[in-house]
Amino acid sequence: MIGAAAAVLVIVLFVGGAYVYFFSGLRTTPRSLAITSPQAAPTSPSSATPSTPSSPAPGTSGLAGSWTVGSGSQAGYRVSEQFAGQSSTHEAVARTSSIAGGFTAQQASSGYQLSGLKIVVRLTGLQSVDQVVGFNVTQRDRIVQSSLSAQQYPEAMFQASSVTVPAAIASGQTVTLQVPGQLTIHGTTRDVVAGVQAHTTAAGLEAAGSIEITMTDYGVNPPQVPITTVQPRATIEFQIELAKAS
């Protein structure tokens, strides 16, 4: 009898907590990751008349050389959750600062050519950063870790063999890029295109953007919990701070 009563209590507490989470209107989600304080209006390689640039960042007027991911970088995901009885969705967001990687840049006729670009994100560091009043959203992280098989596949990786960057970036312009590459999650690699904005900063380079994926393409089943459905589409977002090797 005591065991049965305890089991019922656990169920009641779970459902009660879920009710607050799913049906509360007091939910907030952080903005998408983006570059900070853009130096100038965005421009793309096809822009005929770039905006007036600001002064180039110290020491980065020549981008040729090796660059590595530095502190202050973030990456993560945002996924829509559909709650039973609600017409609107909630956006679940998790992020981590456990990121490594870099690239090599060489001067080219059209600007700079980046080679060997690789960004590696440690999935076991992902932590929820959205908020729902009355519920600890970090409880979601354990379910996500299980869905990603993070103990077996602890890293996600984006690689691009060659990327062309306009010369305007060296003079303080914000440039907009579409970067084709390969994304590896859960031991599966797919071709993707990353939408990226980048500019120089006082410390080096900053890039931010996103990649749209479908979880099942990587053998990942959307996490499921009572009275909610997680959409299979997900946005991977990143804000990368890069420092040039001396």
**CA-based gyration radius:** 21 Å
Strand order of the largest sheet: 3-6-7-10-11-12-13-15
Number of domains: 1
* CATH topology label: Lipocalin
What's the structural blueprint in terms of helices and strands?
Blueprint: H1 2-23, E1 27-28, E2 42-43, E3 65-69, E4 74-83, E5 89-96, E6 99-108, E7 111-122, E8 127-128, E9 131-132, H2 139-147, E10 155-166, E11 174-185, E12 188-200, E13 205-214, E14 224-225, E15 228-244
Parallel strand pairs: 2-11
Antiparallel strand pairs: 1-9, 3-6, 3-15, 4-5, 4-15, 5-8, 6-7, 7-10, 10-11, 11-12, 12-13, 13-15, 14-15
Q: Overview of this structure, please?
A:
By secondary structure, the protein is mainly β. It has one domain (2-45, 53-244): Lipocalin (Beta Barrel). Helices cover 13% and strands 48% of the residues. The protein is built from 2 helices and 15 strands. It has helices spanning 2-23, 139-147; strands at residues 27-28, 42-43, 65-69, 74-83, 89-96, 99-108, 111-122, 127-128, 131-132, 155-166, 174-185, 188-200, 205-214, 224-225, 228-244. The protein is elongated and about 55 Å long. The model is unreliable at 1-24 and 39-61 (pLDDT under 50).
Question: Brief overview, please?
Answer:
By secondary structure, the chain is mostly beta strands. 13% of the residues lie in helices and 48% in strands. The model is unreliable at 1-24 and 39-61 (pLDDT under 50).
Brief descriptors of the model:
246 residues; Lipocalin; 8-stranded antiparallel barrel; two-stranded antiparallel ribbon; 2 helices; elongated; disordered N terminus
